[in-house]
Amino acid sequence: MGKKKRRWPKILGITLLVIVLLIAAIAVAGYFYIRSLLGGGAPEVNVTSDGSAIVTITGGQISGGTDNGVYTFLGVPYAEAKERFKPASEVTPWNGVRECVEYGAISPQSSFFGGSDGQDNNCQNLNIWTPALGDGGKRPVLVWFHGGGLTSGSANDAQTNGRNLAEKENVVVVTVNHRLGVLGYLDLSAYGEEYAESGNVGVLDMVASLEWVRDNIAAFGGDPDNVTIFGQSGGGAKVLALMTTPRAKGLFHRAINESGATVVLGPIFATKEETSRVTELTMQNLGITDVSALQTIDFERLNSVSSAAINQVAAEFNKPGALGTGNTFEWMPVVDGDVIPTHPLTENGFAEAGFDVPLLIGTNLNEWAFGFGINANMTDDDVLIQLRNTYGDSAEAVFEAFRAAYPNIPSVNALYVDRYLRPPILEITRHKAMQGGAPVYSYVMTYGNPSSVHGTEIPLVFANSTGAMNDKMSRIWAQFARTGDPGWEAYTIDSGATMILDEADRLAYHHDSELMALVGGN
Length: 522
Fold this sequence. Notes:
alpha/beta, two-stranded antiparallel sheet, 13-stranded mixed sheet, 522 residues
């Protein structure tokens, strides 16, 4: 009998774990489903080879094509990763003209949501869309770093096809592939000098792409002295990493972070203690002591074993869950004192490398709602009943704070207002303002409520949707890239100036401070 009694906690624990994983899988699947719907008018790549689209770049000559009049180059190599866990080198020069009209390889994925085609450690390639070639146009350059955390996703996404944005705003658009997950962030520095930077080779890939842009973008009609980096979700965290590493200083001049921070990724990165433990467990569970064996070990096995190590480290170091529950640790840059000298947020400001870089940063109102179960016709009384289920005695205060923050938004949104990304994004905004360097501009996008979910802004920013918001969002992002000013008052600690982006914009001041104090992090 005693043995049977002891089994119940274990069985219960396993059952709860399965339920949690199932819920998480449904939520993430829902995100990708809704995300695909949001792509709406996102155009598929339709490139026609053009014999006049020949450009000389680092490595040799390439030929591209046109997509309804916009010059398009796909899968352009910017560096070459000859080995795992080591910084990429310059590309090996080629003879003749290299055709670049098809997407290149993407990084092996640490998540099953990332896709499976064309994956390779040597995934250092980028895509370019431009209205003209070699005309000395000095157009603003927007360099996109994709989302998917730092474990999945790619630059080869229909939503981020840069054709429409390049044409509409007369800019050059670049999207970048780079190493992710275990191949980008496994810290092997304890195993020899040749692996000293292994914990940050994903970041170094991105730096290499910006070096390539500096050296080559003028031939594509772009201005190497006016480069804006931008990214959403995990891509926003990558923007923060590039604002933190001295290796990227001077390679870009403005930055945009769209919904790119959680409590465990963005404001802070990994510590050497944490990443060393991940590596120790990975090597131990693979049953190897010779680090060179990692060069040839099957990726799926490496990924599986290292992911288990990540989960164990989350528990050992009691890392808070990204969405408010459990423990979470993610692949991310490591604060090594060199490539990443500090966390993005310092005690009284922001990383020194980002001092001179204007930052546009914000979130969407309903980041994690995904449109499921939302009844836009709910009465205020119905909303209050559901708020009491979540906030108990604070429900009325939450309701009133929401109405004060968003007087023009239906009350039902109070049930789904984002409380996981907005607080860390606000913290980043405040710290950037505290730094006293280049300005920071804050926004919250409420368009589409009650479905202004994670990623809603992406097709709008890339001009791959329709309607007034499509024109507005792409115009604002291009204006910021052109001038460093999106068209509204900069955020300061005193003012808390934030633009509420919708069909009718509204500049507000500390508009959701009380609301976030009530719901943030709960």
